[in-house]
């Protein structure tokens, strides 16, 4: 069982056993049939993984779509795009289609914000030229952008980067996390981002911290979560899972999904289906 499996189980049990809920309250998200999608939740969740010690936040209780997650990161931070056709045609990802604002984009969000403020290049240049600065931040929650178009507000909304003794550490700040569906994907995709940035600036990937302000389970996902809680991965199969980045590349903008390999990853099957809350 990986450290991420243990953290996932603890978080889900905390939510189900001692969390709060929105039952009876007015909520924004709905299921496809129009029914309000309520949640059970806890606030202010913090997890920490030292990548240099092999603490990879990969979930094995179910298949984690790690390749698709990394492709989404490339779309946001390399392509710096909000274009759903680009996401579909280049990366074969369609999970953002439900948030199409009507022009085949997700609005002035995510990659469009990165491009507008040149956030990625500013980060790379800052880490190279003033590595021990305390202002290495990418913030996707820009009020001007949120007000300029409709669209889902960024969930994984900010990263903060710090250098220490040859290592690059990163904290991901997330306002909201759908725990059984997207939490594991967000973790591994931002670890991949950390690995690419560290390589670009000549450092090793260090500690990945993940702060979630609202960690929740939707009311129609309870049975699937109970199934995951009952699963027990074989210890010997999962304590050596590694995400490996092609050592021959150093430029952030040159990396592709083919430069990543996941070693010794054998998640439990079958995978589970979750109804989407939109």
UniProtKB/TrEMBL annotation:
One Gene Ontology MF term: thymidylate synthase activity
Binding site for (6R)-5,10-methylene-5,6,7,8-tetrahydrofolate: 178, 277
GO biological process annotation, one example: dTMP biosynthetic process
InterPro entries referenced in this protein's UniProt entry, alphabetically: Thymidate_synth/dCMP_Mease, Thymidate_synth/dCMP_Mease_dom, Thymidate_synth/dCMP_Mease_sf, Thymidylate_synthase, Thymidylate_synthase_AS
EC number per UniProt: 2.1.1.45
Cellular component terms (Gene Ontology): cytosol
Keyword annotations from UniProtKB, A to Z: Cytoplasm, Methyltransferase, Nucleotide biosynthesis, Transferase
Main location (coarse class): cytoplasm
Pathway connected to this protein: Pyrimidine metabolism; dTTP biosynthesis
Places the protein is found: Cytoplasm
SUPFAM superfamilies: Thymidylate synthase/dCMP hydroxymethylase
PROSITE patterns (UniProt xref): THYMIDYLATE_SYNTHASE
Gene3D superfamilies on file: Thymidylate synthase/dCMP hydroxymethylase domain
Reaction catalyzed: dUMP + (6R)-5,10-methylene-5,6,7,8-tetrahydrofolate = 7,8-dihydrofolate + dTMP
Every Thymidylate synthase/dCMP hydroxymethylase domain range: 6-277
Active-site residues, Swiss-Prot/TrEMBL: 155, 155 (nucleophile)
Family label: Belongs to the thymidylate synthase family. Bacterial-type ThyA subfamily.
Function: Catalyzes the reductive methylation of 2'-deoxyuridine-5'-monophosphate (dUMP) to 2'-deoxythymidine-5'-monophosphate (dTMP) while utilizing 5,10-methylenetetrahydrofolate (mTHF) as the methyl donor and reductant in the reaction, yielding dihydrofolate (DHF) as a by-product. This enzymatic reaction provides an intracellular de novo source of dTMP, an essential precursor for DNA biosynthesis.
Complexes and interactors: Homodimer.
Name of the protein described by the UniProt record: Thymidylate synthase
Organism whose genome encodes this protein: Peptostreptococcus russellii
């Amino acid at each position: 069982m990986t450290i991420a499996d243990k953290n996932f189980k603890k978080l889900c049990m905390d939510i189900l056993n001692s969390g709060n809920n929105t039952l009876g309250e007015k909520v924004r998200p709905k299921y496809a049939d129009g029914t309000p999608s309520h949640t059970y939740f806890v606030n202010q969740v913090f997890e920490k993984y030292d990548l240099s010690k092999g603490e990879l936040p990969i979930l094995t209780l179910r298949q984690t779509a790690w390749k698709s997650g990394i492709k989404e990161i490339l779309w946001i931070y390399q392509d710096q795009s909000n274009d759903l056709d680009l996401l579909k045609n280049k990366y074969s990802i369609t999970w953002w289609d439900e948030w199409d604002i009507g022009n085949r984009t997700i609005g002035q969000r995510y990659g469009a914000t990165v491009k507008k403020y040149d956030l990625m290049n500013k980060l790379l240049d800052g880490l190279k030229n003033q590595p021990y600065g305390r202002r290495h931040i990418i913030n996707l929650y820009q009020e001007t952008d949120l007000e300029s178009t409709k669209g889902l507000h960024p969930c994984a909304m900010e990263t903060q980067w710090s250098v220490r003794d040859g290592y690059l550490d990163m904290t991901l700040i997330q306002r909201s996390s759908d725990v059984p569906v997207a939490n594991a994907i967000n973790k591994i995709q931002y670890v991949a981002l950390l690995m690419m940035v560290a390589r670009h600036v000549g450092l090793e990937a260090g500690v990945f911290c993940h702060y979630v302000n609202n960690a929740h389970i939707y009311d129609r996902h309870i049975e699937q979560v109970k199934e995951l809680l009952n699963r027990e991965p074989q210890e010997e199969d999962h304590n050596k899972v590694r995400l490996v980045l092609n050592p021959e590349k150093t430029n952030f903008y040159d990396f592709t999904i083919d430069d990543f390999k996941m070693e010794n990853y054998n998640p439990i099957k079958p995978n589970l289906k979750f109804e989407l809350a939109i």
